[in-house]
Specification:
Elements (H helix, E strand, L loop, with lengths): L1 E2 L2 E6 L14 H13 L6 E6 L9 E6 L2 E6 L2 E9 L11 H7 L31 E4 L2 E7 L13 H14 L9 E9 L8 E12 L2 E9 L5 E10 L3
Antiparallel strand pairs: 1-2, 2-4, 3-6, 3-9, 4-5, 5-6, 7-8, 8-10, 9-12, 10-11, 11-12
Helix pairs in contact: 1-3
InterPro entries: HotDog_dom_sf
Protein name: Thioesterase superfamily protein
């Protein structure tokens, strides 16, 4: 519905799209809001800030005033998304075969803090995305992404929420050792091309710095010929 404050509608995050067991995957939420900001145009990046964890299976309020999109629970704002005029520098392309081989070194296969995560958790094929980024050198990790057909929408397209989710977790794993974790605080991303259900892509991420509890990283999705499909920059917050 539309009110004097702008457009408002309800959003419920299905339990399938979890990160930690009780909250939504940050990348999926970020992509959901980013798709509202961008609409059909993808001529700029979108910055999404996650102020608080987003609960699952709970009716939330999705609001839009001008170019700002928010997600709230009652009077508490959980997430905010805005367009930003800036470029995202993607990590360099890694060929699919090399990215797929790197998965054997994925730290989460030995000790995963959130094994049920929709993106990087060890869930059944077709249920989760099973993105397992392993080291390829110099703070860079990569994974070969085989896009499940089951993530396509009714029109046969892979939604932006899925693409942003795939960009999310690898930026954390560029930092994490087995058993380590952090929570996504901000994700700035841009989609340049289409991800196809059943397609194969290279996902590449690199650690770009650390400041106290804040961890920084960048990620990208590439077609097998090296064409850039999407890129993101992330800030993670490690526990105290």
């Amino acid at each position: 519905m539309t009110t004097a404050a702008g457009l408002q509608t309800a959003l419920t995050v299905p339990e399938r799209f979890r990160g930690p067991d009780t909250t939504a995957n940050g990348g999926w939420v970020a992509g959901t809001l980013a798709s509202v900001v961008a609409g059909s145009a993808r001529d700029s990046a979108v910055e999404v800030t996650l102020h608080r964890p987003v609960p699952l299976e709970t009716e939330l309020r999705l609001g839009q005033v001008a170019n700002t999109v928010t997600l709230s629970k009652g009077d508490e704002q959980l997430v905010e998304a805005i367009p930003v005029a800036e470029e995202i520098t993607p990590p360099p392309f890694v060929p699919f075969a090399d990215a797929a081989r790197a998965e054997a070194g994925f730290a989460g296969l030995r000790d995963h803090p959130f094994p049920g995560c929709f993106v990087c958790g060890v869930r059944a094929p077709g249920d989760g995305l099973r993105v397992f980024p392993g080291p390829v050198g110099d703070g860079v990790v990569a994974a070969g992404w085989r896009v499940p057909v089951a993530v396509a929408d009714a029109s046969g397209n892979v939604p932006d929420s899925i693409v942003w989710a795939a960009l999310d977790c690898p930026t954390g794993w560029a930092h994490f050792k087995p058993g380590e974790y952090a929570l996504l605080g901000r994700l700035t991303g841009r989609i340049y091309g289409r991800v196809l259900p059943g397609g194969t892509y290279s996902i590449v991420a690199r650690a770009t710095g650390r400041d106290g509890r804040k961890l920084y990283g960048e990620s990208a999705i590439y077609e097998t010929d090296g064409t850039l499909i999407a890129a993101a920059r992330a800030t993670w917050i490690a526990p105290r």
